[in-house]
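Worked problem 6 (solution included).
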Amino acid sequence: MRAQARRIGYISAPMAAYTKRNLRELEDLAVKHGFSENQEMRVAHGDLGAEQTGVSLQAVKPGKRHAFGHRHKEAEEIYVVLSGEGKVRLDDEIVEVGPLDAIRISPQVTRAFEAGPEGLELLVFSPRYEGDAEMVPDFWSD
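Solution. The predicted structure is:
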């Protein structure tokens, strides 16, 4: 347990029993990184003090796609569609998604979402592995 704990940056100091944050009130990292034309992205692990679990709230704007695809070395992710409809590209496969669809994606699969006319809001869960993600520019271009 300690070897794995060190690998993901586990801090052994005592924590509060719980932390509560409103995801919509967190900083939109898409603005900070220049992707706000396509999407919003609010990552909560730091604000929650989470040591092992990652969670983010993402919104893909109507008729837009994620600004880039990405994949992981180790982290499996689960995406839950909160609202809207659209598509997800998983490597070379395109899958339709709608409200309350949950999609588990293996680490090595490159993924990106496309929103329909109402936009697409996603809740994303994953383990925390620092430096695990790889961006794939122009993954889903026409």
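Discussion: The beta strands are 39-43, 53-60, 69-72, 77-90, 93-97, 102-105, 111-127, 133-136.
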